[in-house]
Each structure stands twice: as structure tokens, then as C-alpha cells.
Amino acid sequence: MHKPRIQPIFIAGEWRTGRGAPLISQFPADGSVNAELRAASVEDVEEAVVMADAAQRSAAWRATLPHQRAAILARVSDLLLSRAEELAALQTRDNGKPLAETRALVASAAGTARYFAAACETLEGELPTPRNGDFMTFSQYEPLGVVGAITPWNSPIASEMQKIAPAIAAGNAVLLKPAEATPLAALKLAELFQEAGLPQGLLSVLPGRGSVIGEAIVRHPLVRKISFTGGTTTGRHLAHIAADKLIGTSLELGGKSPTIICADANLEQAVKGVAYGIFSSGGQACIAGSRLFVHRSIYQSVLKQLCQVARQLRVGHPEKPGIHVGPLINERHREQVASYVERARAEGGRVLVGGCPPEDSALADGSYYLPTVIEGLPNHSVVCQEEIFGPVLVAQPFDDEASLLAQANDSVYGLAAGIWSADYRAALKLAEQLEVGTVWINTYKKFSISTPFGGYKESGLGREKGRRGILAYMQQKSIYLGLDPNPIGWCD
Ligand code: ADP
Fold first, then answer.
1. Does residue 286 carry a catalytic annotation?
2. In a domain, 485, yes or no
3. Ligand 1 and 13: CB distance under 6 A
4. Going by fewer Cβ within 10 Å, which terminus of the chain is more open, N or C?
């Protein structure tokens, strides 16, 4: 009988079969198997951590100058671009996002590698002015050691590079645990780093269950920083472990982002923007604009237009051109999304569009769900408060700024918000009062690696991206140089 090849994983600089449980990467569009793997085992984690620690402490890696580490990242960026199509296709197979979106993820990852190459080359220490004349001080940035990076399945290559690039630029070693559903892109990244000349052991990619492999990484005494993107419950759990170890965390967590359409907004743009904000990626984005607030004077008209747009979106096979919404990550997740919609119905919500899988028999094998708009629920309802991570939008009218802000900010989350308005002054005033880490005005889901990103409240801790993003992976050492010929002068 033909035995399928087991995809090796990248442990301590070597490609080998993991010693953990069997793991399958499946195409969400039809359930076909992309690859069979064995997850990393706890012993694999141990080996990878010990090797990472040794590689990170090695004299050779310690001696690399910033521009030399930058050169590795620049090569990775070039390799990503030269294999962009292959990498986009791989991610689409892994997580079912339409190709247009996975191509953008590869471009983003390439840009991130370049950006942190530049950040690393141009990073400077500090030379504070001393408070008196008998010494000078300076403060330099040093790596932390071994960094654990844990990522979700929705934007694999981009979110993984957002962690690996600054961590390596800063001189650390990285253990990456990708989501169970999407191991392939992370493994491909490892291949590119190896080809770009990253010394052995500085990067391991360890697929496996979060509660086993992720936890083993986080708990390991040699792991000195956790960079995590995923759900708030997991993030909080990891923060507890990190607190016990007294190590730092960067946490990018969930969201329930409000989008606001003011009475004076360009409605055509706003409606398109709102639809893109929630329905692109099938709503499987922490920044999905999943709560819509519309000024009452235009509420009915906006909802009519929005439902039209939602109906016209092409839901279909993610490898076909022109598809707006692909399948959700798997059947289990589709059931969860559907159960939220059922809950909304039971609580008196009106489903204006969608609210079920598509009828197209060609899509029967995939975990598809139609773009859905619900209204008629109060802001405290479960569907308005919990992150659904699917193509489900809840709409509510608002009458004035005070009631709008009270509702928009009435959420445990604070990741992002959108404002559609013709009046930038009013929009900026509103933006300042929203308790969120990112506000888009007259646009949505636009990203720049040079702009810091992170959440308020239970949406996260710390910021990724931006020039200072590299500092999340460094620690500062201050040095005093005595200049006084009688430096201590104690009890003279
Ligand atoms: P999502 O709902 O986006 O999958 P999760 O927080 O469940 O969010 O998963 C995000 C990442 O965290 C995945 O790689 C997952 O395997 C990992 N993970 C889940 N539980 C744990 C845990 N207890 N310890 C470490 N990592 C975990």
C-alpha cells in the first residue's frame, strides 16, 4: 500500500519527523488532505529550546553585527517575493483564504522582514545627559535570549513574520508554534530562513496542540519572552504563566470592533468599507468590524444597501479568481458561527441576509457560511459582545454621540474601530474617545508595518510593528563610566 510521505518539521535546525501525535493539514474548501505530519513532542521542544539557547549564546551569533542580521532578513524578504505564488497557494490550502488575500499576506511578510532589517540596522542606544559631572552613562539594547512565538491560523505567514523578524533582528532565537490547522506556511518560512543563512538552532518550528506543545514552550525556564496572537482566554492563561516566570509577553488577542457610519458619510464608500471590514477573510480576523453603528437618520437606507452588497459577494472556492469569501477554517468552527446566529434568532434578532451555509451544491464539501447581517439586538446581547470570528455583522442605530460612545465602548475588547464621516474634525474627536488601539477613518483593515498595532482592554498587551516593535524583544542595559579620579569618596 502507498504510504503517504510524512512532512518533516524543523527541530533545532534539522528537518525530521516530529515525535508527537499525528497532525493533518486539510483544505477547508473540500476537506482534502494537504499534508500529514507528526506534531512535535515535549522532548522535541526540550531539544529545540536547549539548542536555541546554546545557539543564541554562542560567540558567533553574539558577535553578529546588526547589519549582518539585517542581511539575513533582507534575503528572506527576497526569497518570499521570489516564491510569492507558491507561498500564497500553500496558505490558501492551509486555511482556505482566497488567493488574493494570501498573496497580500506574503507581500506583508516580505515587507515586515525588510522593515525589521532596517529597524535593526538603525537601532541606537541612548546616551543620557548625566545629572552631575563625575560620570557618563549610556544604555544599550540587548537580546532577551529564547523567544516563544505562538500564532493562530487566520493570517499565518504574516503574523509569524511579525514575530520572527523583530525577534531575530534583535539577536534572539525563536521557537515558533503555529496553529494546529496551519503548519505548512510556518514550515516553509523555516526553509527560507535556513536558505537565507540563519545559523542552525536559532529557529525551530514546532507544530502541535496548544495545550501540549505551546504550553511546554511557554513554561520552559529557558524561554524568556512570549509573543502570542490568538484568543483572549488563551492569552490570559499564558500571561499567568509568564507572570510566574517574571518574563514579558506581547499579546494580540480578540476583538469585537465597532464601525460607525455618521450621518454625513459617503454612503457608497461606507457600505463597501463595512462589508469589507467584516466579510473579508470570512470575518476570521481579530480586527473584523463586527458591530455596526449607523446614525438613525440613514439607518434603513444603509442596511438596505449593505444587504445588497452582502448578497452580491462571491462566496466560493478560494483558488478561483474573483472570490470574496472562502470557506471557514473547518466544520467545527462553522458550527460555532452558526450557533451564534441561532442564539441571535432565539433572542429576537432579525437575520436580514445570510444566516446559513450557501445552497450551491458545488460548495457542499467545504465549511462555507454566507455573509450575515443581524439587527434588532441590544448591545448587551451575546452576539453583540462575544467574538464570533465569522462573517456575522450586528447592526444598531444610534441617535447622538454620547449614546454611540457608551455603546461602542461597552465591550471587554478594544482592538479596533472604524469611522465613516465627511467631517475629519468630528471623526478625530470621536476616535480619541474610542477605547481601542487602532482607528480607521474612511477606510478599514488597512495596515502598515511602520504603524504600531495592539489592543486596549482585553484585546491585548504591548504593541507589535513600528520602529519600536523591535524593542519588545530586547532588554536595556545601562552602563556608568566613572570620570572622577576619586570615584567613591566615601567616609574620606
Ligand atoms: P484561536 O481561537 O485563534 O485558535 P487560540 O488562542 O485557541 O485562538 O489559539 C491560538 C494559538 O494558541 C494556537 O497556535 C494554539 O495552538 C495556541 N494555544 C492554544 N492553547 C494554548 C495553551 N494552553 N498554551 C499555549 N498555546 C496555546
1. yes
2. no
3. no
4. N
Residues 299-309 pLDDT 10s: 999 999 999 99
| Whether residues 424 and 472 fall in one domain | no
Over the stretch 113-132, which tens digit does the pLDDT of each residue have?
Answer: 999 999 999 999 999 998 88
Residue with grid cell 534575503, as numbered in its chain: 75
User: What CATH number does the domain containing 370 carry?
Assistant: 3.40.309.10
Indicate if ligand 1 lies below 6 Å from the C-beta of 112. Answer: no
- The answer to whether the beta carbons of residues 370 and 404 sit under 8 Å apart is no
Ligand 1: which atom is nearest the Cα of residue 209? 16
Q: State if residue 234 touches ligand 1 by the CB under 6 angstroms criterion.
A: yes
Give me the domain span that covers residue 392.
258-441
Beta strands in 110-232 (DSSP E): 135-143, 146-150, 173-177, 203-205, 223-229
- Written as one letter, the residue type at 432 is E
Q: Is residue 237 within 6 Å of ligand 1 at its C-beta?
A: yes
Q: Could you tell me the three cell numbers for 311?
A: 448578497
Residue 36 belongs to a domain: yes
Name the H helices within 34-98.
42-57, 59-62, 66-82, 84-95
Residues 179-212 pLDDT 10s: 999 999 999 999 999 999 999 999 999 999 999 9
DSSP code for 210: I
Which of the following is catalytic: 286, 375, 387, 458?
286
